[in-house]
Amino acid sequence: MSWVGAEKVRFLALAFLTLPKITRVIKAASRTLKQAAQQGAAPDRLQPCVSLVPRFTSGFRRRVSLVVLSLARGVSESDTFQSQMNEYKIWIEAEHWAEGEWNPSDDNSDVIVTMANGTRWFTTFFSYANISSLVEKFKQSGESLSGKYFWATDMLLVDEVSRPRIEEVVHHLIKENEFDQIFTQVESE
Predict the structure, then answer these.
(1) Strand, helix or coil at 86?
(2) Would you give per-residue pLDDT tens digits along the chain (189 residues)?
(3) What per-residue string of b and e applies to 24-56 under the rule 16 or more CB within 10 Å gives b?
(4) Domain layout of the chain by residue ranges
(5) How far apart (Å, rounded) are the C-alpha atoms in residues 124 and 154?
(6) What is the pTM of this model?
């Protein structure tokens, strides 16, 4: 058996051994939370029970925590995620530029969404036209093999980079449970 094959077998064995543990922990935590909720515990009192969830990655733990809390409250995971994200503030870098520098139909701007719970999420909105403009600029400057490719981290393409469009897209992504797949969580200040 090759090293890659052996590693794959080891990984699968660990996954199968760990999955039942995770399932047992989630079920136990869920039962504990349901009992606490039935006894009238306030939702904020239920949060410490989430520490029963094993420590994997913070993102995995957050998702498992949402599932456990959702089960205790009798709502779906997506409803819980959406309710956490219903209130937010949007900061758009371009709104802080000098008058006349922002062209919503041909521009890009960093955007930070701050949720009510204090988490901050980042992405850069690019208009479709801005990609073409940047490629033309790169052809002249020699960047990106003279415009033969284009890339940017945390890029989200839209028809226009305006506050109404950004608000519309953020709302849609939250509603469709895609927000945390597109925006990157950043450390709070």
Answers:
(1) coil
(2) 444 444 444 444 455 555 555 556 556 655 665 666 666 655 554 444 444 444 444 444 454 555 444 444 454 444 545 555 569 999 999 999 999 999 999 999 999 999 999 999 999 999 999 999 999 999 999 999 999 999 999 999 999 999 999 999 999 999 999 999 999 999 876
(3) eebeebbeebeebbeeeeeeeebeebbebbeee
(4) 3-84, 88-186
(5) 6
(6) 0.58
